[in-house]
Design a protein that fits this description.
Elements: H1 3-13, H2 16-29, H3 38-48, H4 58-66
Length: about 70
């Protein structure tokens, strides 16, 4: 039996009142994994090397965009 078949069997045994709690986990797991593009990789490397700009709040970010 595959893991997928076993998961289906387990879901069939979960009471309807508890399915809601499992749906969030399944939705998160169903999101396809994406590779970051070159621009994102470069930005992450810049931050790792002490460069770039970090913000503690969204207000700080928005303010920096207004300048």
């Amino acid at each position: 039996m595959s893991n997928r078949e076993y998961a289906h069997q387990l879901l069939d045994r979960v009471p309807e009142s508890k399915i809601f709690y499992i749906m969030g986990i399944l939705e998160g797991a169903a999101i396809p994994e994406e590779e970051p593009n070159e621009e994102t990789i470069a930005a992450m490397q810049e931050l790792e090397n002490g460069g770039g700009e970090c913000f503690d709040t969204l207000d700080e970010l928005w303010k920096s965009l207004e300048d």
